[in-house]
From TrEMBL:
InterPro entries attached to this UniProt entry: HPF/YfiA_ribosome-assoc, HPF_long/plastid, RHF-like, RHF/RaiA, Ribosom_S30AE_C, Ribosom_S30AE_C_sf
Gene Ontology biological process: negative regulation of translational elongation
Function noted in UniProt: Required for dimerization of active 70S ribosomes into 100S ribosomes in stationary phase; 100S ribosomes are translationally inactive and sometimes present during exponential growth.
Source organism per UniProt: Parasedimentitalea marina
Protein name per UniProt: Ribosome hibernation promoting factor
Amino acid sequence: MRYQISGKQIDIGTALQTHVQTELGEAVAKYAQRPTDANVVFSRSAHEYVCEATVHLSTGLTAQARGHETEIYAAFDSCCEKMETQLRRYKRRLKDHHRDRSEPVELSAASSYILASDKTPTEEEPSSLQPIIVAEMETKIPSLSVGEAVMQMELAGAPVLIFRQEGQDGLNVVYRRDDGNIGWIDP
């Protein structure tokens, strides 16, 4: 696993870097196979040290954790503990969902576009109602059950997930509502 350990206006010594690599490496190795890279950033917020860690896994999952304490090592230990808890929960969810599934998830190809936003509020109508396409990418739409779709959305930290419900035609959407609950659109 590749590590990028840095500090925002803080000098990070080699002892702290070694501590981060060994502790985070052990925590991630327990619950995740093949982690690709980790980014750990230390900063100060008033009298506390803040540690933010992001770990990218080969499965596409990005796990993030944040800890803050009055000492820099304690801030990292708090962050590492949260990361380990998060990875343990995700691994348990994946194990529970894969018991019922006998075949791998089927993926369908689709196009994904990034549209330019109109950041300048004007009172005049735009000359064209066609949006400006900034980027075009290929994306995959999985064929999942509703429970698996909710789990995938939470794992990715995304506000919305589009999927095909197994055994049905049409696209379904699960999304996080403003009240904290999950919404499901079934055509």
